[in-house]
Design goal:
The complex is a heterodimer of chains A (353) and B (257). Chain A has helices at residues 11-30, 34-59, 67-85, 89-114, 119-139, 141-144, 176-199, 202-212, 214-219, 224-250, 255-258, 261-274, 280-309, 313-318, 324-338, 342-348, and strands at 150-151, 163-165, 174-175, 252-253. Chain A has 353 residues and is mainly alpha-helical. Chain A has one domain (11-349): ABC transporter involved in vitamin B12 uptake, BtuC (Orthogonal Bundle). In chain A, the strands form two sheets. A two-stranded antiparallel sheet of chain A has the order 1-4. In chain A, strands 2-3 form a two-stranded antiparallel ribbon. Chain B has nine helices and ten strands. The N and C termini of chain B lie far apart (44 Å). In chain B, α4 packs across α5. Chain B has helices at residues 43-51, 73-79, 96-107, 122-134, 150-164, 183-194, 208-214, 232-237, 239-244; strands spanning 5-14, 17-27, 31-36, 58-63, 66-67, 81-84, 168-172, 200-204, 217-222, 225-230. Chain B has two domains: 1-80 and 166-257, Rossmann fold (3-Layer(aba) Sandwich); 84-161, no CATH class. Classes of the chains: A mainly alpha (353), B alpha/beta (257). At the A-B interface, α8, α9 and α10 of A face α2 and α3 of B. The complex binds adenosine-5'-diphosphate and magnesium ion.
Amino acid sequence: MILSGNPPRGKLLTALLVLVVVVLALAPFLFPGSKPANVAAKICVFALLVASYDLLLGYAGIVSFAHTMFFGIGAYGIAITLYALGPSWGAILLGLGAAILVAALFALAIGLFSLRVQTIFFAMVTLAVASAFAVLASQLSWLTGGEDGRTFRVPEMLRPGFRLIENGPFGITISGRTLSYYLVFCSVVVLFLVMLRIVESPFGRVLQAIRENPFRAEALGYRIIYHRTLANVLAAVFAACAGALNALWLRYTGPDTSLSFNIMIDILLIVVIGGMGTLYGAIIGAALFVLAENYLQTLMGAAFGALNASGAGFVANFFNPDRWLLWLGILFILSVYFFPTGIVGKLRAEPKS
Amino acid sequence: MSVSLETRGLTIRFGGHVAVDHVSCVFRPGELTAIVGPNGAGKTTYFNLISGQLRASEGQVLLDGADITAESAPLRARRGLGRAFQLTNLFPNLTVAENVRLAVQAKAGVHYDMLRPWSLRRDLIARADKILESVALESRRAHTAAALSHGDQRKLEVALMMALEPRVYMFDEPTAGMSVDEAPIVLDLIARLKRDTSKIILLVEHKMDVVRSLADRIIVLTNGACVADGEPAAVIASPVVQEAYLGIAPKEKGNAA
Ligand SMILES: Nc1ncnc2c1ncn2[C@@H]1O[C@H](COP(=O)(O)OP(=O)(O)O)[C@@H](O)[C@H]1O
Ligand SMILES: [Mg+2]
C-alpha cells in the first residue's frame, strides 16, 4: 500500500533497494564524520532530484534541460529568505512555498507555450530558458549573491553546534547535523512515496500512454498537452523541493551547487544508469553515482599506491587518481552497454520462475 | 439516446492530390454502413477527417447537428466518435490490461486523478477485464501489447474502441491479417453491436461476404469521391462497383462521361 501497488519487483532489486535505504537511514550512526554525512545527504537529494526528472523523461517521455533551473529555484528560495529574514522555521516555509510557486509557474508557462508542438522544441526552449536563468541569477547579485552565492544561517536546531543528545546511551550523540540529515532523509522518503503514488495513478498511466503513443492517447480523448504540462509542473515542484533540501543541508546556495549545467549532466547520467521509467532507478543510480564520484578517487589512489609499490609502474598509471573522471566515463559506457534499460530495468527483467 | 453524423462536401487535399473529394453523407443510428473502395481510395483518410486526426481542407463534419470540423481529435473522442485504426496503434510497452484500462479510464472521464492508485479502482479494473473477455484476450492480459501476435493486436485495437463505448464506431479493416478462427470473434462483436440501434457503425472492409452479411448500406469511394451509395444488393450489382472495386470491366466500356 505504501508503495502504491508498485513494488520494486525482483528479489535482487528489492534487496539492493532495502540495503541502500537502510544504510541511508542509519548513515549518521554507521559512518561518523562530515564527509560520509555529505555523501549520504547528496545521495538523498539526488535520488529525489533524479526521480522527479524520471517522472518527466521516463514516464511522460519529455526531454527537458531545465531541471537544474527548478533545483536552483528551490535552493535560492531558501537562501534568499533565510538570508533576508534570518534563521527561522517560518522563513524556511516561506522560502519553500515561494520557490514551489515560482517553479510551478515557470513550468506551467514553459509547458503551455512549448509542449503544444514537438517535444524536441520543448527541449530547446528549456535549454534556452535554463541558460538565461543561470545568467540572470549570477547578474542579480544584490538578491542572489552573484557568483559567490549566499551563505546563510539555519535555525538553531539544525546547526552543527546544537546537541539534542550528548553522549547518550551507547555513546550516541545527536547533533544539529544529525537532525539536518534526518530532515533531508525523511523529506526525501515522503516525497519519493508521493511520486510513486503519482506514477501508479490514472494520471501516471496516461503519462506512460503519451510516452508510448501520443497519437493514440489523443484518439482516446486525452488532451495530451495538459497532461504533459502538468507532468512538467510536478517535476519542477519536486525538483524545487530537492533544491531547498540541498540548500538547507549545505547552508549555502551558489551557482555551482544549484544551477550549474554539470548538475544537469549528472541527472542525465544517473537516470540512464539507474533505469528510466522506474523511479526506483533514481535511488540505485544516485547511490552508485555519488559514491563513485566521492570514493573512486580514493579507491584509485589506493590501487595506484599498491601497484606502484609492487613495481608495476606502467599499469599503475592507469589508476592515477587524476584519471578518476576517465574511469567514471568508462563505468558509464559499460553500464549503458550492459544495462541499456538501466540497472533497475536489468534486474526487473530477470526471468520469472 | 441516438446520434446523427453527417459530412458535407468533406474534402482534403495533400498538395495537389485530392484524397477525399466532396463527400456528403448522412449516417443514421442503427445502421451499419460499409465503406468500400480500392486501396488508396481515401477510406482511411475519410475516417481521419471524421474523427479529427486530419483537418478538412473544405466541408464540414456535423455531429448531432453541431459543426465539429474545427475540433481536435480528443474532443471528438469525448463526444463519442470512436476509432479502431487500420494500422495497429497501441501502447506497445504497456500490458494488454493497461492498454484497455486506459480506454476505460478515458470513458470514465478520469484524466488527472493522481492520488488514488489504479490498484484501488476496482470498478474500472472490472470493466476492463470484461472487455478483454469479449475479445478473448483475458489470458494475455499481463503481456505487453508489443509481445502479442498480429491477430491479438488487431483484437486489442478493437477492444480499445469498445472500451470507449462511443456513439459512432469506426472500424478500419478490423479483420485484416487475422486468422480464420480470430476474425469471427471481431465480426461477432460487430454483429452484437448492431443490435444496439442507437449507435452508428462505419466499417471499412474488403471481404465482400463480410460486407454482405453485416452491412445495411454500402458507400463506394474511388479516388476520394463517393461514386455509389445505397442498399448492399443494388450497390454491389452496380457497374461502377463492378469496375472500381471488384476490378471487373463493365461491358459497355467508353460510354461513361
Ligand atoms: N498524410 C498524408 N499525406 C499525404 N498523402 C496522404 C496522407 N494520408 C493519405 N494520403 C493519400 O491519400 C490517399 C488515400 O489514402 P487512404 O485514405 O489511406 O486510402 P484507403 O484507406 O482507402 O486505402 C492515398 O493516395 C494516400 O497516399
Ligand atoms: Mg485504409
